[in-house]
């Protein structure tokens, strides 16, 4: 069990009978009242977001989520097919909602971590940074670049990313999978 002030960002909790991930938390006190922990939560099953305030007297149960490595094989009609890392015969499909924003950066044979709650996969955890090859990059255009210029490039998975002007077709870049932003060139 977690006290109200132990519910911090990154923790997985049971709230209303379902597993939730704590995205942010802020403990504060309003004037003469008792302290509260204002949190932003994301449901691991449905992906729904909500905000909730936990009061000093409240306790919540920490969710027991197992983690297992899985390997991405291919995509077909908005279904993303995976198999267990050790056993290729155990195949299964996940939807974009279950994967989250990271589906744009999945490339063949990449290994990700599946989050399992009550024997069911509720989501996947992508590596925070991934190396992807640029397949399309428009030429750099001269102009007002005092604040740094950007252009939209297409990577091998089909995703579009804002990148600096010096990135060319064939370059390998590192992308943050949590927000889809360019990090650096390899």
TrEMBL record:
Signal peptide: none annotated. Pfam families: EFP_N, Elong-fact-P_C. SMART domains: Elong-fact-P_C (SM00841). CDD domains: S1_EF-P_repeat_2. One of its GO terms (biological process) is peptide biosynthetic process. Belongs to the elongation factor P family. This is Elongation factor P C-terminal domain-containing protein.
